[in-house]
Write a structure and sequence with these properties.
- This protein is 34% helix and 23% strand.
- Strands 3-2-1-4-5-6-12 form a seven-stranded parallel beta sheet, sandwiched between helices.
- Strand 4, helix 3 and strand 5 form a beta-alpha-beta unit.
- The protein is of the alpha/beta class and 270 residues long.
- The protein has two domains: 147 residues, NAD(P)-binding Rossmann-like Domain (Rossmann fold, 3-Layer(aba) Sandwich), CATH 3.40.50; 106 residues, Dihydrodipicolinate Reductase, domain 2, CATH 3.30.360.10.
- It binds NADP nicotinamide-adenine-dinucleotide phosphate (NAP).
- The site of NADP nicotinamide-adenine-dinucleotide phosphate has 24 residues, from helix 1 and helix 3.
């Protein structure tokens, strides 16, 4: 048996799908066993080497997963409309399932939990390992310095639709939870006019937009006379692809259950 982990990519014609395919082609631990695209896609049956310029002749883009194609892990970066089919395929093949698809409905999150009774499952809104670490550290600081003021600042390119980013909200949630509270109880999303003094325990959000910034998040903790800031800067979406591949390699042969991106980080540390 080969030591390489066989990965099938779902949504492989998309921006993230292509980044994941490229990351797998560069890896000496994983093998791309199939790059799936939707039926009717302009890339169906297109030779992969024409798109990625790789010398490695691996597989072509395909619209279906043949039963004899090995699949240890199915990696999905598609969309909420395609997600159910991706999960069903992983369950049918009894392969691990790694998904970064966002905008899932509650029923789809529940389907992930059900699938985890038979296959290992890891879903994350942000596959950056640096952001996973930022979340872990923010939680620790929030709990260790419960009286310090916490504010969260994020910046993204001007085309981003939602604000604050899902990652900024997750950071706020982590700090609120570390202080025995919830984000809705603590969050302040806008300060205009005469808002009066800052209330103890508030978690304030500030949002910047512009240029081609892939994503920057800073969590600030401040008290009289001192301020602690922790920042993560993403240079490109390749970091999400690398994190997803790290997760895929990590989860490949584990027991069925729901795993989190935090578990992919080395245990211990902070
Ligand atoms: N977790 C993270 O770290 C992270 C990071 C970045 C993005 N994301 C999320 O990842 C997802 C993809 O993002 P993206 O920027 O790569 O989007 P994208 O460029 O629009 O790619 C979406 C892909 O899904 C495919 N697809 C859509 N509907 C389908 C269907 N019904 N059946 C089969 N395939 C279908 C598309 O195929 P066609 O090209 O044929 O339409 C395309 O390959 C989004 O949910 C995004 O929010 C997550």
């Amino acid at each position: 048996m080969s030591d390489l982990v066989d990965v099938v990519v779902y949504g492989s014609s998309g921006r993230m799908g292509q980044a994941v395919v490229r990351t797998i082609l560069e890896s000496d631990k994983a093998r791309l066993s199939c790059a799936l695209v939707r039926p009717g896609s302009g890339l169906a049956d297109e030779p992969l080497d024409r798109v990625f310029g790789t010398q490695q002749r691996v597989v072509d883009f395909s619209t279906a997963l043949d039963p004899d194609v090995p699949c240890d892990v199915l990696v999905d970066f598609s969309g909420p409309h395609a997600f159910d089919a991706a999960l069903a395929l992983a369950v049918e093949r009894r392969s691990a399932f790694v998904s970064g698809t966002t905008g899932l409905r509650d029923e789809q999150r529940a389907a992930l939990d059900r699938a985890a009774q038979t296959i290992p499952v890891l879903w994350a809104a942000n596959f950056s390992l640096g952001v996973a670490m930022l979340l872990r550290v923010a939680k620790r600081i929030g709990a260790a310095l419960p009286d310090w003021d916490c504010e969260i600042l994020e910046m993204h390119h001007g085309r981003k639709q939602d604000a604050p980013s899902g990652t900024a909200l997750a950071l706020g949630e982590a700090v609120a939870e570390s202080r025995g509270s919830t984000l809705p109880e603590r969050a302040v999303f806008a300060r205009i006019d005469r808002t009066g003094p800052r209330q103890p325990g508030e978690i304030g959000f500030a949002v910047l937009r512009g240029g081609d910034v892939a994503g920057e998040h800073t969590v600030l903790f401040s008290t009289a006379g001192e301020r602690l800031e922790i920042t993560h800067r993403a240079a490109s979406r390749d970091i999400f692809a690398r994190g997803a591949l790290a997760a895929a390699l990590w989860i490949a042969h584990r027991e069925p259950r729901v795993y989190s991106i935090d578990e992919v980080l080395s245990p211990g540390g902070v």
